[in-house]
Automatic annotation (TrEMBL):
GO terms for biological process: negative regulation of DNA-templated transcription. This is Heat-inducible transcription repressor HrcA. Negative regulator of class I heat shock genes (grpE-dnaK-dnaJ and groELS operons). Prevents heat-shock induction of these operons. The gene is hrcA. SUPFAM superfamilies: GAF domain-like, Winged helix' DNA-binding domain. It holds the Pfam family HrcA. Residues 2-70 form the Winged helix-turn-helix transcription repressor HrcA DNA-binding domain. Belongs to the HrcA family. Residues 105-319 form the Heat-inducible transcription repressor HrcA C-terminal domain. The keyword Ubl conjugation does not apply. PANTHER family: HEAT-INDUCIBLE TRANSCRIPTION REPRESSOR HRCA (PTHR34824).
Length: 341
């Protein structure tokens, strides 16, 4: 059922006050802070209706009210509307950050630490994948006749070392030369899309490499193309553990889960957006909300950032910090890509 405008104001006030004070909100407090010209009895009736509809609950008799996940969702939706209105009016101040051209790992780690500190949350950054970056060169270093290490260097200076098992090869020089000729200037994802064509025409490659090395070439190409390249930076686990609503008997389960590959997989299966409490469906994290989105190189997505924070946290501040960091990372990678030859 739809809420009246007054009930919406009452609900917004309850959520905002609870986020600020972390104590149940009374009808008296609503009257003191909200611009509502009504009696205490009217406000209490509105609060009872909000309870029946599942937006708030009363921890115990005579206590004030606490917002549920449904109430928090209403609040966040209203907050996003307000932020969008401000953005459309053009009153938002955009601050330009100057990033040095440096170690990408340090930049991402620094961004994660700053975001974790400002949101009091657990931050996970998905590193840019070589699949989405243009290849500068590939260097293959032989370890034995059947095992090598391929180092893929991209336009952002990001390199990825990939172990390669292959058929016996005496000399990798020809294969390295052909790979660089075929892959320089394109992305690994583009090369992956062309893999079937490459393999179907492998017989033509004998103009460049000997028949004895053809099998080794196929092994290496397949390994490069199907590498997953998943890697993450994460900071702020202590912020989750320190949350007063996380029971002691649950802490070790939470730590084990967010340290597992399953967690990263399930986290980044979520679509971009804000998830409150149980909405995200991640185990042991129902006391937390998640905001997740992607940073870009110009308009091309490079990676994603997720912040997990107290579901009764300051959403306005968290969203502000999160959007700022996304913009700065996008700006950084765009600047770096234009400066790296």
């Amino acid at each position: 059922m739809d809420l009246t405008e007054r009930q919406k104001k009452v609900l917004y006030c309850i959520v905002k006050e609870y986020i600020s004070s972390k104590t149940p909100v009374s009808s008296k407090r609503v009257l003191e802070t909200a611009t509502i010209e009504r009696s205490g009895a009217t406000i209490r009736n509105d609060m009872n209706r909000l309870m029946k509809l599942g937006y708030i609950y009363q921890p115990h008799t005579s206590a004030g009210r606490v917002p549920t996940d449904k109430g928090l969702r209403f609040y966040v939706n209203e907050l996003l509307k307000i932020r969008e209105e401000i953005r459309q009016r053009g009153t938002q101040v955009e601050t330009v950050a100057r990033f040095p051209i440096g170690d990408m790992e340090k930049v991402l780690t620094g961004a994660a630490k700053l975001l974790s500190s400002s949101t009091k949350g657990f931050v996970v950054i998905e590193k840019p994948s070589p699949l989405n970056l243009r290849i500068k060169r590939i260097v293959i270093t032989p370890v034995s006749k059947t095992f090598s290490i391929a180092n893929v260097v991209t336009t952002l200076g990001l390199s990825s070392s990939i172990p390669l098992s292959h058929a016996e090869i005496d000399d990798l020089t020809e294969i390295e030369r052909v790979l660089n000729k075929m892959m320089s200037g394109i992305t690994l994802s583009e090369f992956k899309a062309k893999l079937k064509t490459v393999l179907s025409k492998v017989s033509e490659l004998t103009d460049f490499i000997s028949e004895n090395t053809t099998k080794g070439f196929i092994d290496i190409v397949e390994r490069l193309s199907f590498e997953s390249y998943e890697d993450y930076i994460h900071v702020g686990l202590a912020n989750l553990v320190a949350n007063e609503r996380v029971r002691e008997d649950k802490i070790h389960h939470l730590i084990a889960y967010v340290s597992s590959d399953t967690f990263f997989k399930e986290l980044f299966e979520l679509k971009d957006g804000i998830y409150i409490g149980k909405e995200h469906g991640l185990k042991f994290l129902e006391d937390f909300s998640i905001i997740i989105d992607r940073f870009k190189l110009e308009e091309r997505p490079l990676g994603r950032v997720a912040t997990i924070f107290d579901k009764y946290g300051d959403y306005d501040s968290v969203i502000e910090s999160f959007e700022y960091m996304l913009n700065r990372l996008s700006e950084y990678f765009t600047v770096v890509s234009r400066n790296v030859e």
